[in-house]
Amino acid sequence: MDNNIVQAYFWNEIIRLGFSPTSDKEKKVWLYLYGKSLKEFWEIEEYPTKNESNSIIIFHSNINLQYKFNHISNVDNYEIELYYLSDSLELMWTHDVDSHSYFSFPENSLLNKYNKLRRAKRSLSIHHIEKVLNGLIIHPAIHQHIQSPIDEHEIRIGGGIYNPFVYLFHLRFQLCPSNEKRNEEKRRLVKLFEEAIKNDRNIPPNELFG
Amino acid sequence: MKLNKFGINIDSGLPLYAEGIEKLYEPCFPELSKEIENWIKDSLSSKPLLVGGQIGSGKTTLLYQLFRQKDLSPKIKIEFDKESLNLDEGDFLSIILARFLEKIDRLQLDINSLELPYDYFNLKEKNIKGIIEVLIPSQFSIETFENKKKARKVVSEHSEYFKNLIIKLGKLIQEKSKNSFFIFAAGIDKFNTKSSAFFELKSSLDILSNFKTVFEVNAVHLFLPDATTPFKNVVKKLLITTPSNNQIINILKKRMGIYSQSVENELELISKWSGGNPRQAIRILSYFLSLQKKTTLTKTEKLAKSIKKTSEDFFAFANKPNLELIKAVERDKKIESSLINLPGDKDTAQEALYGNWIFITDGSQNNSWPAIINPLVKSYFKERTITESPEKILLTKYAETHGISASGLTFTTLDEEGVEKSPSEILFEFLSSGIEEPYPLKIVEILDLIAASLLSKDRKDRILIAYKDKKILEAARAYIFAKANTYEYQRYEHRIITGGENQNPLHQIEEILATDTDIFSLDLEGDWSDVQLDILNKHRDIFINYQMIWWVPYEKNKKYLKHWIQLRELFEFYLLEDEMLGSLSKENIEGDISFLEDLIESENSAESETVKNLKIVLEFLKKERGENG
To answer: Are A82 and A67 in contact (CB under 8 A)?
Structure first.
């Protein structure tokens, strides 16, 4: 089976198993634990999350960035605002998904139609998982660069990520300035998702965030 | 402190130990370290050594860095600040006796010929361990505390006998120990030379001067006249002065880890405002980081507020030295040794040195010491003779560089007569106001500044909150306990600690510290005596490993802070605004409760504790507004 097709199926599986809380409560828990995980992951001095009536603000003042989003109820329709945080707060751009109203490439439908997941799983390997995670989180093929005040820190914000939880998770990764930490995290995620796909197991958020 | 490998490691400026030293230590005085090392290794020398520095200068960290090395660790360590009780002679002698007996026990030396006074202590079993245990109990309980008190009183009553005994024990240990034997007498820096406790300590220091002892002292102790100093036969007095600007910047960079580039523009400024005092530098940085998330403030305002907050912590209501002294140091950039030696009242150079109003910056030259006024307090002495200081110029320049004039700060630009003030004047009035009268903060503003430590078990900070209106206390506490449990389950214990006649507040505090909890909340009530306040001040370091919130009535706080020169270095000080309603929104609280109730999985959980306490706050808010519950 063509490697690209194999990886396409794994791409979907990773999103399904790690980034698809369904009920409102599951989404709430996911977002709560996401916010909680950031202090340790970014190795900063305080928890960077602030809850405001219906929205959540994450400030990463040590790299002059902030982002904001509402409690996500509909994965096909949401916004995540990115701000430049300096002497004032400037909106850089809004990551906006309107796929409930506008057509977007139906990769899910196509993959499900051909129904080759089981066959793809026969080729499950670290190599494939790594490639997929690279494209999804670590180095999205289509991305915009944001300048970090830290020289060695490359921030690549993915341009085509439609799943909000994947988007938030990739922000978490991208805003971590330590290459060593990123590499460690990549190794951990590869292992985690390889096992999850093999056993068809949903990954609970506390495990996802380490 | 749990260490971050690549990221930020900040605290309130505590001494570094173990893992922290390896990662964060900046060797600022290699020659001085070498001198201490040579003294330790010199087997022919049995004379004591004084190592002194001002509060927050890094002396404990420097010593601990040295002592980590295997052949450089002290054989006996005596912690006068942590282990004392009543601060009387018997107290101090008891500590030495216990530590000497411990050593004798470890070396299994035969001391039968010395006839230890077991009967004095009413021990069930007459052995060395029994005496050690009664004088320095390993477990805290009311019984062991009372026994300790009685035993130390016995030592007081028979002090001459015990002094002789201690010397004999010490000589025996010295004789039988290998060449690298030396004693570390720690915590003497907490004892101001003018205090009655220091007077009581003298005989103990005299005893230890008979042995190869390194005394950890404050800078002022180095200036005691030879005729009256209790540190006899000292081979050398080593003074830790102020590190260079670059060294302070390196200290801060290490604290910031990979994020240091993001505060590069600010580090030099913070270093200048630290006056070369590492703790002061770390405190300013810590506040600056806490304010980073405040998008309504410019960077200049954040810096100015951090500087002001630090000066409040260290100097609000403190006894001030006289202006003449300040002017002299500012003019001459030095202070005469003879001035420091002068006995006298509280305005002397000695007090200015002890209280960090001035910093000694280098070794002595012709009986005088290069010195500067602490930048944090310069603005308080509003005289034209206080010239434009480097840090003042730097802050104004910083404001301009960032496109903000100093007058862009949100302070009033006109004085009472309607005269326009210059940006510098505005800035300096702002910075100095905290020393006279700290600005009250809303509970949410306090929370912004303490969030880094309160919300995480990784950091242990100490917070002192002064209040005017007792009615809001329960709700304020509930709000803080709620917030403390936002992400991590943190247990808390709230107790009233009563000072005054027939009370022993230190004992009460020790009792509560023996409980297993995460946050200790103490309400200081009663009329604390000067002695009780001083005892707490000297025991500062027993609180280092605890997350604490102390609540003190505002009118009493003014008096307490004057006694707490040492203690306040480890605390952040806040004045709570009376108006709770102004800063807390009922709708926000209800929203938080509703959000968190869904997440509760068990009673002993962060979410459950947060909801429980938020409901107390909500109840209070509704009652204040006359709404039904």
So the answer is: yes
- Residue whose structure tokens are 């140091």: B329
CA distance A29 to B605: 14
Q: What is the mean pLDDT of chain B?
A: 88
Average pLDDT of span A152-171: 92
How many interface pairs between A and B have CB atoms less than 8 angstroms apart? 94
Cα separation, B285 vs A129, whole angstroms? 42
Domain boundaries, chain B: 59-69+76-240, 264-317+383-436, 443-624
Check CB contact under 8 Å for B588 and A53: yes
How many angstroms separate the CA atoms of B489 and B302, rounded?
A: 31
CA-CA distances (angstroms) from residue B366 to B144, B336, B370, B405?
53, 9, 11, 44
Q: Which residue has the tokens 């999804």?
A: A136
- Of the candidate ranges A193-197, B244-248, B366-370, the one whose mean pLDDT is the lowest: B366-370
Contacts of B431 (CB under 8 A, 6+ apart): B304, B307, B308, B311, B376, B379
A150 vs B258: CB contact, 8 Å cut-off? yes
pLDDT at residue B384 in the model: 43
Q: What is the 3-state secondary structure (H, E, C) of B458-501?
A: CCCCEEEEEECCHHHHHHHHHHHHHHHCCCCCCCEEEEEEEECC
Other residues' Cβ atoms within 10 Å of the Cβ of residue B33: 17
Q: Which residue in chain B has the smallest CA separation from A182?
A: B6
Query: Tens of pLDDT along B301-311?
Result: 899 899 999 99
Q: How far apart are CA B404 and CA B398, in angstroms?
A: 8
**pLDDT of the residue at B118:** 85
Beta bridge partners of B359: B372
| B399, closest residue in chain A (CA to CA) | A87
Dig out the tokens for B131 from the structure: 């005496």
Task: Measure the CA–CA gap between B190 and B140, rounded to whole angstroms.
Answer: 23
Which residues lie across from A58 on neighbouring strands? A49, A67
Residue showing tokens 């089976």 = A1
Q: Which two tokens stand for residue A7?
A: 């990886």
Q: Burial code of B267-280, b = ≥16 C-beta within 10 A, e = fewer?
A: bbbbbbbbbbbbbb
Look up residue B237 and give its two tokens: 């007095």
| Per-residue pLDDT reduced to its tens digit, B190-225 | 998 888 899 999 999 999 999 999 999 999 999 888
Residue B368 pairs in a beta bridge with B336, B365
| Predicted local confidence at residue B191, as pLDDT | 92
Specify burial of residue B368 (Cβ count, 10 A radius: 0-12, 13-18, 19+): middle
User: Per-residue pLDDT averaged across B53-75, rounded?
Assistant: 93
**Comparison of pLDDT for B466 and B347, the residue scoring more:** B466
Which of B11, B258, B401, B610 is the best residue to mutate to test the A interface, defined by the most A CB atoms within 10 Å of its own CB?
B258
pLDDT by residue (tens digit) across A112-147? 888 889 999 999 999 999 999 999 999 999 899 999
What are the residues facing A144 on neighbouring strands? A157
Structural fold of domain B443-624 = Rossmann fold (3.40.50)
| pLDDT at B164 (0 to 100) | 95
